[in-house]
Amino acid sequence: MPEPIPRGTALYREGPGPAVVRHLEGYGSFVDFCSAQGVPAYELAADPERLIRFLRTVGSQLADDSTLRAAAAVFVGNTIARLRPDAKWTAYEGAPSTVGNREKAFEVHRLLEALRSANDDAERGLLAVLADWAQEEPEEPPARPPLPVFPSAGQPRYVRPDVPAGTYYNRDGEPIPYGRQWGAGAPDPESHSVDSHPERFAGLHAVARALIDHLTSVYDVDVQDDPAHAGELLRAGRDVLRAVKVSPRDPGAAALTFVLTGYPGVMVHAGVLHDFAFPVCGCDACDETVETTADRLERLVLSVAAGGYRERYPVGRKRWSEYALAAFDDSGSESGQGEPPPASAERLHAAEITLREVPVGWKPWPPRRS
Description:
By secondary structure, this protein is α+β, with helices and mostly antiparallel strands. It has helices at 28-36, 41-45, 48-57, 59-63, 66-81, 108-116, 120-135, 203-218, 290-305, 345-356; strands at residues 12-14, 88-92, 95-100, 105-106, 221-225, 240-248, 256-261, 265-270, 274-278, 309-315, 320-326, 332-338. The chain has a 5-stranded antiparallel β-sheet, covered by helices on one side. A hairpin with a 4-residue loop joins strand 3 (95-100) and strand 4. Helix 1 (28-36) crosses helix 5 (66-81) and helix 5 crosses helix 6.
């Protein structure tokens, strides 16, 4: 399997990105099981409809043997992956693996469990979903971020301000090891709705102010400190304390709007159609720390200023919005795609026109004249 995607963070890929896994090993015992039933496994792999019906008939036998059930899940996932050229296996930290593409993904373990009690209508519905998905035209390949311009030798370097980590305690008076609470396992189910100590993110305000000061001292920009700029966000920030828009004096470079919230946290609107939240989620399950969140905030801001940011809209027949970010220090890349943001038709149209002018990505910010 590919490396698991971490919980509660953006997908940040080190180096060239994870390997694409379309065919996973570990299904040999299911092949033997099929042979014992008088059914050639290769025929099932070539006919999803026959495979689904076979699984319904042997569901109770699979349920009684965890090893066989796991092998069957791999076999089913590989069969699904064959239906489309852009399908692949994906692993998520603390969650079941899936197989599919960016539009649709299937949890094969859950699918097997559902088939045990599925009726004929449910079977027909699943087969219709698979058939429709297999016949859809492939989406456009994901955008590649532009190459950022590395800081010049004489350019002042950004220095993170002092951000106290602090020690926080649970109800029993024991320190909470934020960032290491769950180890390699899944989080406690009850922790998803618990936000014990949001105050641990208070240092993000200092980081945002330091980044604004750095951008102002290094680049040729306009700075507008006005709460009205919180309206730049596509999803309104709660309890806005301050909003600062930093606009490079080059229309081909992406502006950044910093919104400091009373959570405490920071929202950043980058370019024309994307908001980034810091933290993404402060609940105990996601287990974010102020240090890792500050890392992401700095990476976004410095990479946009270095010209490592690209947006696309509309993408494909679903008219999705998409971004891609290459790190300013060449440490990796990040990307995301989804439904159009909740913006007016006029704003979406204006964004579409603007992005036509930067088809390969936003430009590096112009340096400040000495």
